[in-house]
Amino acid sequence: MPFLDNLIAFTFAATLLTLTPGLDTALVLRTATVEGKQQALRAALGISAGCLSWGAAVAFGLGALIAVSELAFNVLKYCGAAYLAWLGLNMLLRPRQSLSPAGGTDNTTTNWFFKGMMGNVLNPKIGIFYVSFLPQFIPQGQPLITWTFGLVGIHVAIGLLWSIILIGATQPLAKMLRREKVITWMDRATGMVFVLFAARLAFSKR
Question: Is the pTM of this model over 0.90?
């Protein structure tokens, strides 16, 4: 497949993957409606950092280990499922009724970037996806590391653009979405989504 055709085909496939509703979409939407656009952007940046971490792992061989080692895959899978379940149960059992006070901004900021990143880092299926998907678009004889980071960079750029669109779409409704009952409902709904994704990850196979 010619050089340009590879990039076009990958960009199209990565766009379809990004637009498919999943955990990242749920996290960005929930954070945008409840916390505001700045916090949602930080969560989106954390998600991107998680993708880049997996891109580095794949480029330098760890992704291949996850792909062939049942033990490594299962350890990371169950850690990821436990982390998602912990996030989800906290939202389900202890939903907030108002936004965090201004004095806690720095702590909340750090948490949402970290949560976005760890949601991807602890999901081995992203590593498996990169290991199995990226090589199809790397021309024969081209440097593996350079192309891996380049393709992951395209995926991250598309994801950030989609997150910005989602964040922007919530702003006209921001005042209504930040009401006490809506905040509580959003926390519980997102918590349920996280728990379901945790179960799906825990019972998934390669």
Answer: no
